[in-house]
Amino acid sequence: METNVLPRLLQGALHRRFHDPAAIQMCTLMNIKTGGCSEDCSYCAQSSRYSTGLQATKLSSVDSVLTAARTAKSNGSTRFCMGAAWRDMRGRKTSLKNIKAMVEGVRAMDMEVCVTLGMIDAAQAAELRDAGLTAYNHNVDTSREHYPSVISTRTYDERLQTLEHVRKAGVNVCSGGILGLGEKPEDHVGLIHTVSTLPAHPESFPVNALVPIKGTPLGDKLGDKKPIPFDAILRTIATARLVMPKTIIRIAAGRTTMSEEQQVLCFMAGANAIFTGEKMLTTDCNGWDEDKAMFEKYGMKPMKSFERGRLREEPPAAPVEILEQVADGREGVQA
Fold this sequence. Notes:
single chain; alpha/beta; TIM Barrel; 12 helices; 37% helix
């Protein structure tokens, strides 16, 4: 097989109108504060309500985080993400000060930097912006209709309020969802509808496949069953690419369950970022060497820092029109 097979297969596709189809961003996500969260997200090992064997920790030191970022950069990652298991940032002035120092340090390495810290207010979003934050991640998880089945301690509108604070502060919005939460296919459309009808499309749309964790309600319910078929992941990526052509679509949790060929299909459908490294929060992650070997095999290349989608031709159909076609079965998004 020719090494440039992926760009050739994508010749003429919508994805190619906005992105270099061979460029895939390598992102690394570090858990800077593990466990002890008061929320009841039914999928999460970091909730203090569940017995998952996870030991809660305090916030990591600035030096240890910057060391991890340097390691990530030396292995090819151009975006460094930091996650803290908190409901919100109220009363965490010292922690916010340290996180701003982390953000400043990562940006000094010429890397993109993203954080996910739970709910934040407008003032906190502005402080993070001033520190140089590239993006703030706050997933809506699923459709509005299915959401109450997943979590009760934070409303859907509270999630959207945080995204509004982030957007108004001038920080890029990163918001996606988790597939495999017991939802229906209609909820995948609902998820995409939510993020695509925000005042602006998110800069980044992570697509997670549930990793069932023993001790969590969803993990115990599913047991050894596979939470989501691959074709549902592929359809979600393809639909998101049609609806949000300039957005970076990230294959996030659950990628370790995909074969190399399945990952390449995701790239062909429009995904153009992956999480790579030693760990992804509390779950396993594909490693840098493994991913670089896959890139070499299929003629892909790491995306540069701050590379974004841009329109090269006339824009496609309006997002709502595409979603209506998908819901009616008229849009040919095939696995």
